[in-house]
Structures are given as structure tokens and as C-alpha cells.
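Example (one chain per record):
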Amino acid sequence: MVDLGTLGGVFGTASGLNNRGQVAGTSDLAGDQTAHAFLWQRGMLRDLGTLGGTLSSGNWLDEAGGVVGGATTENDQLLRAFRSIHGRMTNLGSLNGDQCSVAFGGNSKGQVVGNSLSDCDHETHAFLWENGGPMVDLNSFVPPDSGILLREGVFINERGEIAVSGRVANGDDHAFVLVPVDEDSVENQINPSQGGSEPSQPSPSVINAPLAPEAVAAFAKRSAHRSLSFGAKPPK
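Predicted structure:
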């Protein structure tokens, strides 16, 4: 067992580990009045900073060394999802001008998932961010009359499959998986006589199915991490 230390405070927690031996998490700073995301590698704990505010949280680490989470902007006005890699933190924005967003999963291709909410306290929408943005609301892939609301992007693997938590029409919480589907393949299955067309980008398709074991473990870890209390709280 290796003690990774802290960024000067008394409390720290790890939330991600990759095959390169890197670890990501969150640690209190000296005085325990705020906390920052960190990346640990080769015995060194690096403070990843913020987006100009006082608080950040590292929630996941991908195989490329990218850390995702949430960080406050200047004067702690907004809480924004971020991805930090090679010492550079990128503000991923939010959906529809929402005040807050937080990232909970990412992969080595730079795809990031999480949630976005208007006032940091009420209804959330799951998002996917990739290729420099902007964010895409994952509910855009849900049939409008289904009664399903995808609330949080929890995990995305290297194939781009996304584990999501959401709500069905009767108010129950369900797990969902979004699987990239080649639109040409779907079209050929429906109208095989028409043949193929120019290749198109895969788009997610919602499947109401049990999560894979690794996604369940990731969700449990994320839930446990969010129940911990740091010195500072996100803005309300």
C-alpha cells in the first residue's frame, strides 16, 4: 500500500486509476477550506488547479492520462465540467446555458460524459462531449414520446458505449446503455434492397438493459465518492 499524500490538507480520496499507474482524485488544500483535483504519477502528486475559481474535483482517469471532473470558474460563479491532460484544463461548457456541469467518465479518445443542470440543484441532463465540443444532450437520442429522461452519463468505454442513469415515465430510476450504431447498417436492415450509401458517423442508440460489471463498479465508486464532504461546497 502506497500513501499518495494530499495537497496540504488532511483529507484526500482517489477516484480513478489507469494501466499506466496514474491515479486521479481530489484533495483538500492546506487549511481544509477548499479542495482541488489531482493527478498522481511516479510518486508525485500534481495539483490540477481550477477554471479560475477555488474548487475542483477529479472524478475519473482515462488510459491517456486525462482527468475529468468539475471545477469552479472565476469568483466561483459557475461549476463546469473539465478534462485535464498534459497539464492543461479544458472547460467543457454546459448544455443550453446551464449554470453547472460535471464530468464523471471519459476515455482515451477524449470523449467525456457527465451531467448538466440549470442551477446546480435541480433537473439534470446527461451529456456527451467530444472533438472540442459543444456538448450534446444524450436525450436527443431518446424517442420524444418514450417518457425517458437520461440524467447522468456515468461511464464511457473505449468503444464509445455509454452507461447512463435515468428516469422512466413512472418516475422509477433505471440504468441505460447507449451503443454507437452505424446508421448505414440500420438502414440496410430495414431496406436491404436499397444497398449501402456513403459511410456516416455512428450515433448512439438507447438500450434499456443491465449495466456491464465494470460500469456497475464505476457507478458505485462514483456514488460513494460524491457522498464524501470536502471543506468547500459547489456554488448554489
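Caption: The two ends are 38 Å apart (CA to CA).
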